[in-house]
């Protein structure tokens, strides 16, 4: 039968074994927990180090605590270079933007602005100009202590270029629209000048034709000497009507300068049109009335209207189609 000392020793040995077993379990747990934390830390570092944008953390005094390696992709400078020279971040900023960037950083650190962003330009190590956008947010621990600012800088050069191209396109479209309007206004002015000139000629022709008719009517009633003079006047009028008051070739040249390619397009679409038809088309295109056209080419208004009807048939127009509008779109 064992003595008391041997029983105590056995009991103590049993307790020590139990404690050792618990210690092993705790050690295994701690090892596993440390392994988990280590893996999570590695994941966090991988995510941080391979961030697509340039990210950083600055303390409440404005000193860098952490800088993502991706800063080299944007600037050409490494994170270590920014740590070694805290002023480097301002040295690469385009000179016209330095003051604004410094003020932004100062205001962010001192809570003078919240949730704001700034656009600025930088010059990379190879002196390439790039547009950037920086956002900043305050950081706090679980106890609410201020830890500084977490910032991120995006490269927005492509966006700026795209917006610039859109703006250039927009400005180009406005300029093009204004140019077209100016061109249309100039054509309208020149058309009015041509129409005014043609109407004056038509009115003169109409007056001459009126005089000829009246002289022809009264000639038989006049005494022989006067009748002879009236006959001479009628002959001059006839001669005047044969040689028009204006040169068609000169008019056609002037018309083509204002309405380039009109006759060429007209002939291409409707080769059956005669020279007289083409002249009539030009007069109608300018908006001359049947009466004006009649006076211009020394015919009656009825003859001019018949000419319009024949022209509509050659152009194969429907009744609902306006002849003047149709010719203006040639």
What is the percentage of strand-forming residues? 5-15%
- Please give the largest β-sheet: 5 strands, antiparallel
Structural class: alpha+beta
What's the overall average pLDDT, rounded? 79
Helix content: 55-70%
Number of discrete domains: 2
The largest beta-sheet arranges its strands as 2-1-5-4-3
- Multimerization status: single chain
Strand count: 5
Question: Helix and strand string, N-terminal first?
Answer: HEEHHHHEEEHHHHHHHH
Question: How would you describe the overall organization of this protein?
Answer:
Helices cover 64% and strands 12% of the residues. It is an alpha+beta fold and 330 residues long. It folds into 2 domains: 105 residues, Beta-Lactamase (2-Layer Sandwich); 152 residues. The longest helix is centred in the middle third of the chain and has 62 residues.
């Amino acid at each position: 039968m064992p003595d008391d000392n041997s029983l105590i020793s056995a009991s103590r040995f049993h307790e020590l074994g139990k404690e050792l077993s618990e210690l092993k379990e705790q050690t295994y747990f701690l090892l596993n927990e440390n392994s988990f934390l280590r893996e999570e830390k590695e994941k966090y570092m991988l995510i941080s180090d391979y961030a697509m944008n340039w990210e950083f953390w600055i303390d409440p005094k404005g000193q860098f605590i952490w800088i993502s390696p991706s800063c080299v992709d944007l600037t050409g400078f490494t994170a270590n270079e920014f740590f070694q020279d805290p002023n480097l971040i301002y040295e690469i900023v385009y000179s016209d933007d330095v003051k604004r960037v410094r003020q932004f950083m100062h205001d962010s650190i001192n809570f003078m602005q919240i949730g704001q962003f700034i656009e600025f330009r930088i010059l990379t190590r190879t002196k390439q100009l790039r547009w950037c956008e920086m956002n900043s947010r305050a950081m706090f621990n679980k106890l609410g202590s201020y830890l500084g600012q977490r910032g991120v800088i995006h490269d927005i050069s492509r966006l700026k270029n795209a917006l610039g191209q859109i703006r250039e396109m927009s400005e180009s479209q406005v300029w093009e629209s204004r140019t077209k309007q100016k061109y249309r206004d100039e054509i309208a002015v020149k058309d009015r000048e041509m129409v005014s000139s043609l109407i004056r000629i038509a009115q003169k022709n109409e007056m001459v034709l009126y005089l000829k008719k009246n002289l022809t009517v009264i000639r038989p009633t006049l005494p022989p000497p006067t009748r002879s003079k009236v006959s001479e006047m009628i002959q001059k009028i006839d001669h005047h009507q044969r040689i028009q008051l204006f040169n068609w070739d000169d008019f056609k040249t002037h018309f083509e300068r204002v309405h380039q390619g009109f006759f060429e397009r007209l002939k291409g679409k409707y080769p059956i049109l005669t020279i007289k038809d083409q002249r009539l088309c030009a007069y109608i295109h300018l908006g001359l009335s049947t009466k004006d056209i009649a006076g211009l080419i020394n015919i009656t208004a009825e003859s001019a209207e018949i000419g319009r009807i024949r022209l509509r048939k050659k152009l194969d127009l429907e009744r609902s189609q306006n002849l003047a509008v149709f010719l203006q779109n040639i």
